[in-house]
Amino acid sequence: MSEKIYCIASFKPKAGKEEEVFKALQSLEPNTHREDACIHYTVTRQIDNPFATGTSYPIVFHEIWASREEFEAHCQRKEIQDFFAKHVESPDGDIEDANVCVYTDEPWNYDAPKV
């Protein structure tokens, strides 16, 4: 049974703040990559492509964590909490909206025996 947690964190910067938000999110990568449970943690920005014309927030973090508990521990790190307080929760922040969701790769009613 997989314990991995997949997180998609999407950000909508305030007008004119796209580059600043992208750089602020990039600054979180080095320390996060040091966490033992971090399997993948990359911030990306949306680009135009004729084969992918969907809509989304323009900046997205793609994360994979070894387990739910370790993802939740990451979310409680001071650096992460400070980022959200400054950029998302503060009225003076650079981010208009954020959408953070977690996913599993386990199918519904997965019945593998516990070992």
Automatic annotation (TrEMBL):
Example of a GO MF term: monooxygenase activity
InterPro entries: ABM_dom, Dimeric_a/b-barrel
Keyword Magnesium (UniProt): no
Domain of life: Bacteria
Domain ABM: 5-103
Oxidoreductase recorded as keyword: yes
Family annotation (Gene3D superfamilies): 3.30.70.100
Keywords attached to this entry: Monooxygenase, Oxidoreductase
Pfam families associated with the record: ABM
Protein known as: Antibiotic biosynthesis monooxygenase
Organism: Vreelandella nigrificans
